[in-house]
Amino acid sequence: MYSGVQSRVVLGWHKAMEKPFSDDCYFPRTLEVGAGEGQHFPFVKHAFDDYVMVDRRYPSSGLLNSSKVRVVIGDAHRLPCAEESIDRLISTCVLHHLDSPESALNDWRRAVRVGGQLTIFLSTDPGLVTRLGRKLTTGRKARKLRIDWDLTMAREHRNHVGALVVQLRHVFRNDKVSYLGLPFPWRTWNLNHGLIFRITKTGS
Q1: CA gap 15, 135 in Å, rounded
Q2: Residue 190 domain boundaries
């Protein structure tokens, strides 16, 4: 994912997620769900006092060299934090992998304070552009490594992007929600390779 043509696409996702936020923005307690190896963290520009990375395993990379960054082992369905204790929540391509995405979304909303923000990225799998791009990039690499990439994606991306969009809009129905596609600003998932949701929690 982080090599060749596909790497430029993935890095573009991270940059686009952080585009609205500058050095002048301040989210005291920021939480990233499914942080993995910390790939998104270098793109975060805004100020914070505490950056919490939640994942099922501890990262093996050396990216985490800030005293303000903490790694917490936890489950995306039940975040290890108090109600309304998070100022900003970030999620990059996590919901496709979860057993119960709607349950997770309800918990994410619980964790964010009123006035807090959520930035959620969705791959548009199984959209047309995503499937075509996979065949031309990661699919080719997987075949060389003798990996059945279609089977891997079928196991990992268990949730359809269309269903995830409906669940997102339902959970945050009382909040301010906007979203756009990548690379095109249209909200269609068949003609884009990603969707970015920007949500401000407006009610309890």
Answers
A1: 24
A2: 4-200
